[in-house]
Write a structure and sequence with these properties.
- The structure holds two protein chains of two kinds.
- Helices cover 37% and strands 17% of the residues of chain A.
- By secondary structure, chain A is an alpha/beta fold.
- Chain B has a seven-stranded mixed β-sheet.
- Chain B is an alpha+beta fold.
- Chain B is globular and about 55 Å long.
- Classes of the chains: A alpha/beta, B alpha+beta.
Chain lengths: 383, 335
């Protein structure tokens, strides 16, 4: 069998001729739209693609992107980051987490600060790398600060499964996994309360493909059926996003309201059922979970099932982890940005007091955050 | 300046600049230092202009694909001199060694220095060694300073003019990608080697051919993005790069795809940018391509007056965006 080159996985999906052709098609079809179309791209990865490849510059004014809350780092409340900070400072603890989580400031500082102060903090590429750390440090407690949407949850489940099989008693998880449909529903439900002050709308959603590779496209069924909002599950390359937009425009022009899959390369309605079963084996829904800037959202996050309580850092270390709520920075409007009610440039501190090097709000922290994308790629050109 | 020094302050980008201006320039500034060139051109009453520079080297791992800290410490300083159009001549060498370090490895490091000095026609003429207690430093730290004779004047970050073309000497990001994968233990099938090399031979060939660069800079920490931003600010111009013309190897592209990095922000140790007139550019590219490893030297952009002090990246489908100087610590994305 011929070996597949990495570039073959993305090259065609960044093809300039295809992107231009799609832009033309969208422009043509959008002329039949009766009203402007406000599309929320739920995931920060999509925001990143839109900004990095300048896709807004290719679309007519009648199509507007509303940036959504799908950035696992951005929505992590200070309370949870404080937990990570406190755990990392415990005697004999190694705290492991993914990538740019270590930059996010909680009320006591970021994990980067804890690391400067001597805490043993490792960033890993895959949750399974934590197994090696636990094996090599049998006299330490290794706590994995697990974050992410449906995409990364199966890996945390696999980590726990491996740890149990190997009998690794020193590996624990602090679980912060969140789910996409519940927050989308919250955005629609809470919109009526705010609509007068913002006059902002979400007419349709672009759903992230990687979430649906695991959870299936089925998780979005309720939006076209109950809320009258069509959803297209779309990939992350520029051609994918442009095609997703075209599919939504066509739905509006033709008067349809459906759940469609653009990313047919690997998304099905049902998703990866064995991954779903594995998640279900170890995790269950939390009643409430606080999202940074958005507040408490019912059933929007996961925790370890009771039978795995001894692997749950939140329960094992319950006596040192505070539960009080912490206010966000007063000047920061991340909450409105995450709700799709304000653009980063509407924030008073954007690019001045709040920068990637010194973020006040969570949307500036992660490279997937809307503010970071605006700061990095600039929204001054043909916005 | 307030707060603590963080790893981000060493990134070659925005925080690095604020550290330098907030503490060092604040107290030590003078006309020469403030030019912030790769090497200072220092005048003497009698005699020629001399280029002078210094650099410290720390790298993990000490030996990496394509080089080691010894080669790096000679290339780094000699390249900084070469970027001012100066022939590297005399270097000082200060080495700090951690107690318990293998003597054989230290000798290996010094042997690579010797090899690299020969390529530059330079010599180490003074030095210093310190041995530090175990745990106070990580293996070996090296500082080299160097002086060179300037063969051409008028080169500098503030000398770019509108309609100048921007040339890159080879494919970018190899050093940053190689070091990152080695440090993090990422196993790759492809061969990814640092571009660590001495630039003087290529610069000498350009000058011998009568090419008159307006600015040259090796794209070390902060990569190509940092260089074009510094130039744009210093010269009060706008630099436009065409994304599709920037040479990037498949291996580096692969690393960037996997981890969410941008090749233009990755460090290089043997890759430089030139700003020069449109007449000189084709010849410069031809000469650069005749050097080993530089087969992909290309014109990648031009100087305009559109957005003063900014750099732009143009896509093949007609969109553009600002290219910022890198900021923060290099961390992989989550999903």
């Amino acid at each position: 069998m011929r070996k597949l080159q990495l570039k073959e996985l993305y090259e065609r999906f960044r093809d300039p001729a295809t992107i231009k052709a799609l832009a033309k098609l969208i422009e043509k079809e959008a002329r039949s739209l009766e009203e402007p179309l406000n599309i929320m791209e739920v995931c920060g990865g999509h925001t990143h693609t839109i900004m990095k490849y300048g896709l807004k510059q290719l679309l007519p004014d009648s199509i507007r992107f509303v940036h959504g809350p799908g950035c696992p780092v951005c929505i992590m409340p200070k309370e949870r980051i404080d937990h990570a900070y406190i755990l990392s400072k415990e005697e004999g603890v190694i705290l492991a987490t993914l990538g740019d989580m270590i930059k996010v400031p909680g009320s006591r500082g970021s994990l980067q600060k804890a690391r400067r102060e001597g805490a043993d903090i490792r960033f890993v590429y895959s949750p399974l790398d934590v197994l090696k750390i636990a094996r090599e440090n049998p006299d330490k407690k290794v706590i994995f600060f697990a974050i992410g949407f449906e995409t990364t949850t199966p890996m945390s489940a696999a980590l726990l499964e491996h740890a149990i099989k190997e009998g690794l008693e020193n590996l624990l998880l602090h679980v912060n996994h969140v789910t996409v449909p519940e927050v989308m529903q919250e955005l629609i439900d809470s919109r009526d309360e705010h609509i007068d002050s913002y006059n902002n709308k979400i007419d349709a959603f672009i759903g992230p493909s990687h979430v649906s590779v695991i959870a299936g496209a089925k998780i979005y069924r309720r939006f076209p059926q109950r809320y009258g909002r069509p959803v297209v599950v779309s990939g992350f390359e520029p051609v994918d996003v442009m095609e997703g937009v075209l599919m939504l425009v066509r739905q509006f022009v033709e008067g349809r309201c459906e759940l469609e899959i653009q990313y047919r390369r690997s998304v099905t309605m049902e998703g990866n059922t064995s991954a779903q079963k594995m998640i279900d084996r170890y995790f269950c829904k939390r009643e409430l979970f606080k999202w940074r800037g958005l507040g408490n959202i019912p059933h929007s996050a996961l925790r370890l099932r009771d039978e795995y309580a001894r692997y749950d850092a939140e329960r094992v270390y319950a006596d040192i982890l505070p539960l009080e709520e912490i206010e966000d920075h007063k000047l920061c409007i991340c909450g409105d940005i995450l709700r799709g009610m304000a653009e980063p440039t509407e924030c008073m501190v954007f690019g001045t007091a709040c920068k990637p090097s010194n973020p006040l709000g969570s949307c500036m922290v992660s490279s997937e955050g809307a503010c970071a994308a605006y700061y990095k790629y600039g929204d001054l050109i043909g916005g | 300046m307030r707060g603590e020094i963080t790893l981000a302050h060493g990134n070659g980008g925005e925080e690095n600049r604020s550290l330098i201006s907030g503490i060092f320039f604040k107290h030590l500034k003078n006309e020469i230092l403030q030019k912030a060139e790769d090497a200072a051109v220092v005048p003497f009453e009698k005699g020629e202009n001399i280029a002078f520079t210094t650099d410290s080297f720390t790298v993990t791992p000490l030996f990496f694909a394509g080089g080691d800290i010894g080669k790096l410490s000679i290339c780094g300083t000699c390249n900084d001199l070469a970027m001012m159009g100066a022939r590297p001549r005399y270097l000082s060498l200060a080495v700090m060694v951690e107690e318990g370090f293998s003597a054989r490895e230290l000798e290996k490091i010094v042997r690579s220095m010797k090899k690299e000095l020969a390529k530059n026609g330079a010599s180490v003429v003074c030095g210093d060694t310190k041995v530090m207690p175990k745990g106070t430093i990580d293996g070996v730290l090296i500082n080299t300073s160097g002086i060179g004779e300037t063969l051409i004047g008028g080169i500098g970050a503030s000398k770019l003019r509108e309609d100048d073309l921007i040339v890159v000497s080879r494919d970018i990001g190899a050093h940053g990608a190689a070091i990152f994968t080695a440090r993090e233990g990422i196993e790759l099938e492809s061969s990814l080697e640092s571009d660590c090399t001495s630039l003087w031979p290529a610069v000498e060939a350009l000058l011998d051919a009568g090419i008159e660069p307006h600015a040259m800079r090796d794209a070390t920490r902060g990569g190509v993005a940092a260089v074009v931003n510094e130039w744009a600010v210093s010269s009060g111009v706008c630099i436009e790069l065409e994304e599709s013309k920037i040479p990037i190897s498949q291996s580096v592209r692969g690393i960037c795809e996997m981890l969410g990095f941008e090749a233009v922000a990755l460090a290089n140790e043997g890759t430089f940018l030139l700003a020069l007139s449109a007449e000189d550019a084709p010849k410069a590219v031809e000469i650069l391509r005749s050097f080993e490893g530089n087969g992909s030297a290309s014109v990648i952009g031009r100087v305009t007056g559109e957005y003063e002090g900014r750099a732009l990246l143009l896509s093949e489908w007609g969109t553009k965006r600002f290219l910022e100087s890198p900021s923060g610590e290099l961390l992989p994305r989550i999903c």
